[in-house]
Amino acid sequence: MIILRMTNQNPEQIARDNIDKQLLACGWIIQDKKQFNLAAGLGIAIREYQTDVGPADYVLFVDKKPVGIIEAKREEEGVRLTTVEDQSSQYANAKLRLLNNDPLPFVYESTGEITRFTDYRDPKPRSRNVFTFHRPETFVQWLSQPKTLRARLHDIPALPEEGLRDCQIKAINKLEKSFKDQRPKALIQMATGSGKTFTAITFVYRLLKYAKAKRILFLVDTKNLGEQAEGEFRAYTAQEDNRLFTELYGVTRLNSSFIPNDSQVYISTIQRMYSILKETELDESAEEENPNETRYIPKEPVPVGYNEKVPIEFFDFVVIDECHRSIYNLWKQVLDYFDVFQIGLTATPDNRTFGYFNQNLVSDYGYEKAVIDGVLVPYNVFTIETEITKNGASILKEFSPLIDRRSRQTRKKFWEALDEDEVYSGKQLDKDIVNPSTIRTIIRATKENLPSMFPDRVDGNGNFEVPKLLIFAKTDSHAEDIIDIVREEFGEENKFCKKITYKSDEDPKSVLQQFRNDYFPRIAITVDMIATGTDIRPLEVLLFMRDVKSRSYYEQMKGRGTRTCTVEELRAKGTPAAKYSKDHFVIIDAIGVEQSQKTDSRPLEKLPGISLKDVLTSVAMGNTSEDMLTTLANRLIRLDRQLLDKDKQKFIEQSGGFTINQVVKQLLNAYDPDTVTNCELEITNSLRGQAPIEIEKAIDNAKQQLIENAIAVFHNPELRDFIVDIRKKYDQIIDVVNMDTITNIGWVKDQEAAATATINDFKQWIESHKDEITALQIFYAQDYRHRTFTYTMIKELCEKLKHEKPLLAPLAVWRAYEQLEKTNGSAKNELIALVSLIRKVVGIDTTLTAYDKTVDKNFQEWIFKKNAGQHNAFTEAQMQWLRMMKDYVTSSFSIEKDDFDLSPFNAEGGLSKMWQLFGEETDSIIKELNEVLAA
Q1: How far apart are CA 653 and CA 655, in angstroms?
Q2: What does the alpha-carbon distance between residue 851 and residue 769 come to, in Å, rounded to a whole number?
Q3: Rounded distance, CA 793 to CA 802, Å?
Q4: What does pTM read for this prediction?
Q5: Is it true that the peptide bond before 125 is cis, omega within 30 degrees of 0?
Q6: Residue 223 · residue 621 · CB < 8 Å
Q7: Are strands 185-190 and 128-130 parallel, antiparallel or unpaired?
Q8: Which residues, by range, are in coiled-coil regions (predicted)?
Q9: 844 to each of 781, 782, 799, how far by Cα in Å?
Q10: Cα separation of 442 and 467, whole Å?
Q11: Largest CB tally within 10 Å, which of 456, 574, 685, 853?
């Protein structure tokens, strides 16, 4: 930035000039102590105002009353600003000349580049970095409130726990403690499907109701996630009020540059908020993909400046969804701008995420914990490896002088002579080379193995019902190839398999709705769209036909299958043949995604490696650095040499009359030294005699206008799409010569070894505790006929097991058995599973059998013996009561007289009804059932 009046200034004067500029931008009027006029405006900043301990650099007056101090220091003092706090505090507590004032609450230390702020009305006042100064109107509002925000955070009452999961209760309680401790950032890690957004809305509601937060920003990185968040806010019913959230508070999802000031919750993509602060327009197409997928990382992010329409204090809190993705580099400025508490939400944090949130992890609820708690389901991996995906192939000129080629854009096929042998690797598949045989081999193998993966999925006509299956493809073109082959191999119609991408002909949300809720489609194919943030509970199979290098992105993609789903919901939402609740899902790995090396984050790539699409998207989203505009100009120059005249004419039509050369010239001029210098001289001459700060501001505006003029055409998404699509006219080779074969297929062996280790660990733990835990003593002595094990015993045993060995939770051990041997039935819950597992380990059952099946079998045998020698020993009313008792023992393991006061017995008459039906036999019936059902 060019400073026109600072050639002879010392560092202190330079700092004060920068402070003056910021104060003016924030709505303050700056005056000298000898010529002040407190009636000139709402907020007055008086330089060098005298106090009884010396002159303060700036005293801030609001509505004619002193409210604050600014202690100014030269830029070099930025590393020592906290050491100045005592000095600025002395001024704040001093008496101002001619005034009998109270201590001033608002205190700043600033170099003009770095500014720290303390509100001395806070409990345990603590200074914090702020982007710039607060506005006078804000101080008026703050002073009208009896308590500060940080004080009001201590007024939040205890959390009502009804309707919340344990992980949600823990997250909210620890977050609210973090607020009370004034920790500026907090990270909530909750596995996909465990209710992150519901948790967030719950604490947002409590912040608005009890802490009287003014506005809260809910930040996402894609339009899709913003729409989902808006839907969840609108559907949320406040437990403490029993009204919809939107009946209590305004919720606005931002889709333009306008921000109304009458809502309490604002939902926005981070790229839109960036454009709002930059005061540039943003097309909604720039919000469809998360910015983390853009490969370009600018050397110097385009800085955000102060925006008086959205001052730094506009929000009190920012909630950042999927915060592991898009809070770095360019976008971090949005978070640095606002003077707020920040709360990050993610299922898959990496080291950068932990670092950014100051290692303040208030919820550590990862996938494994969620599986142990039954909140999510685990997965098994099935591998399909083919010869060509592993080793590639060759098309020999000698045997194939003519080969099939296909236009990437139109998919039109044509023949062409092969100049030399074409040798390709597996990594080139579906990009440079398409081998239909590879796709067909993988799809056929999937079809053939699905029945053995889901043996219970047979409908009333004896036909296998394909479980809901999602295929991850590499590109839209790859997805088109897959969809044809899936329909053909499965012998099904169009609606059986559909594509869900932003390029599909149908509205993506409607296809997604069908896949989530209806019978068709059974199989969906996507490139990126539903990798994150989409709830598809009935989904049971993920087929990976594309690799993923990012660990967190892979975890997000796997997260599509982790949601639990009851058997009733499975049947209702498209899988009527389901006989059991969803208790696992299957990953079919056809690309080696499980073995490929993953990184915690996308490596920083140099500018030459960025795709043309990413360059255009970055420019449209406001990345207008010199490197970026120069790169775009060079790409367009190369493109201009390749285009036919008719395509150049289409460019002119899409750009509003500009040729490629004209656009390139504007891009290069935006940072051209001669152009910029001429612009500065022209403005300096035209504004001669005006205040230097005004001239400087005009120069900055003119330089920014050069950039805006250069990129204006690229705000048009149709032009961006045209440029990207025209580049795709390079063709692909279709390899119809090499037939692919399977080289390795089956369940991942490592999982079998892991299952064996889990079972052995469980056996060892049970054996080592058999003498100290009552429930285990009963099992090992096999005297359960004489001593009943109660629900409390089993619950305590389960809690001890999970506390000492979280990975040996009963459902996890049950699944390990399922991988290695045939089991009888499925575990309904972890306590029932635990009893079944112990019976297996101690030798009572030779096959792992669901406890409810054991109880059913024992009940039938007992009734049969009772009926022996006499016809129908029990009346129908007695049998109905006995069946209720049997069902109760299935879930509670024993029954006592007191239990008849509970459901379901109390609704049928309780213990008195039991006596009415069985009379003197009541006690013996209860004793017998406790003995025989557990046998």
Answers
A1: 6
A2: 22
A3: 14
A4: 0.66
A5: no
A6: no
A7: unpaired
A8: none
A9: 11, 8, 23
A10: 17
A11: 574
In tens, the pLDDT along 461-488 reads 889 999 999 999 988 888 999 999 999 9
pLDDT at 95: 94
> Are 365 and 346 spatial neighbours (Cβ–Cβ below 8 Å)?
no
Nearest to 847 by CA among 875, 825, 871: 825
Query: 447 is written with which tokens?
Result: 């079809």
Least Cα distance to 845 among 833, 860, 859 occurs for 833
Q: What is the mean pLDDT of residues 107-133?
A: 96
pLDDT of 520 strictly over 90: yes
Give yes or no for a contact between 629 and 711, defined as CB atoms under 8 angstroms apart. Answer: yes
Tokens of 479: 């997805």
C-alpha–C-alpha distance, residues 929 and 935, integer Å = 10
Cβ neighbours of residue 754 closer than 8 Å, sequence gap 6 or more: 816
Using CA atoms, how far residue 659 sits from 620, 636, 709, 713, 721, in Å, is: 19, 11, 15, 11, 17
Select the highest-mean-pLDDT range: 40-44, 284-288, 667-671.
Answer: 40-44
Percent of the chain with pLDDT over 90: 35
Q: What is the mean pLDDT of the chain?
A: 84
- Residue 811 pLDDT level (bands cut at 50, 70, 90): confident
- List the structure tokens of 759: 């079972």
Nearest to 105 by CA among 169, 150, 52: 150
The pLDDT value recorded for residue 935 is 67
826-836 core/surface letters (b: 16 or more CB in 10 A; e: else): bbbebbbbbbb
Residue 604 has pLDDT above 70, yes or no: no
**CA distances, 832 to each of 266, 528, 780, 855 (Å):** 45, 40, 18, 11
pLDDT for 38: 93
Q: Count how many residues are written for the chain.
A: 935
| Peptide bond just before 904 cis, omega within 30 deg | yes
Nearest alpha-carbon partner for 746 in 413, 375, 381: 381
871 confidence band (pLDDT: 50, 70, 90): low
Phi/psi zone of residue 904: left (φ > 0), alpha (ψ -120 to 50 degrees), beta? alpha
How would you class 531 by CB atoms within 10 Å of its CB: exposed for 0-12, middle for 13-18, buried for 19 or more? buried
Contacts of 119 (CB under 8 A, 6+ apart): 105, 106, 125, 142, 148, 150
Q: Which of 892, 887, 893, 881 is nearest to 925 (CA)?
A: 881
DSSP characters over 30-43? EEETTS--TTS-SE
Out of 655-659, 731-735, 832-836, pick the least confident: 731-735
List the Cα angle 46/49/51 in 5-degree steps. Answer: 145
* Residue 337 near residue 131 (C-beta atoms within 8 A): yes
Tell me: pLDDT of 401 over 90: no
* 79 DSSP 8-state letter: G
Q: Across the chain, which distance is largest between two alpha carbons, in Å?
A: 119
Distances (CA, A) of 707 to 291, 658, 702, 704, 713: 21, 16, 9, 5, 11
Tokens at 340, concatenated:
């707020």
Lowest mean pLDDT among 35-49, 743-757, 843-857: 743-757
Question: Which residues, 6+ apart, have CB-to-CB distance to 46 below 8 Å?
Answer: 31, 32, 33, 36, 58, 59, 61
State the average pLDDT over residues 12-24. Answer: 93
**Inter-residue contact 564 to 807 (CB < 8 Å):** no
- pLDDT exceeds cutoff 60 at 785: no
448/450 Cα distance (integer angstroms): 6
Instruction: Sort residue 511 into left (φ over 0), alpha (ψ -120 to 50) or beta.
Output: alpha
Cα gap 683→681, rounded to integer Å: 6
**C-alpha distances out from residue 45 to 9, 102, 408, 737, Å:** 22, 18, 63, 80
Strand partners, 393: 424
Determine the Cα–Cα distance for residues 53 and 312; give it in Å rounded to an integer.
Answer: 32
